[in-house]
Amino acid sequence: MATWQLQDAKARLSELVKRARSDGPQEISVRGEPAVVVLAHREYLRLAQPPTRFVDFIRQSPLKGAALRLPRDASPARDVDL
Predict the structure, then answer these.
(1) Which residue among 30, 42, 79, 82 is the one 20 to 30 A from 53 at the CA level?
(2) 17-39 pLDDT, tens per residue?
(3) In angstroms, what CA-CA distances link 70 with 48, 59, 61, 63, 77?
(4) pTM (2 decimals)?
């Protein structure tokens, strides 16, 4: 991720926006400390959408409906001293 000083970002805003769209997020620092990140709108939308629920993820799986046989371990449970 490229880092821009605030004064450079203000002076070259068009270039900053173009690079955010083509090269990815661009960091802007104030007095040498990271302050903000400029990113493309499509990237923002991707990050801002709620995460997929696990149930929905499983339902969308290409393996949905596949016959799946998992062998079970038939050995008795282990002894535990209490």
Answers:
(1) 42
(2) 999 999 999 999 999 999 999 99
(3) 37, 19, 18, 15, 19
(4) 0.62
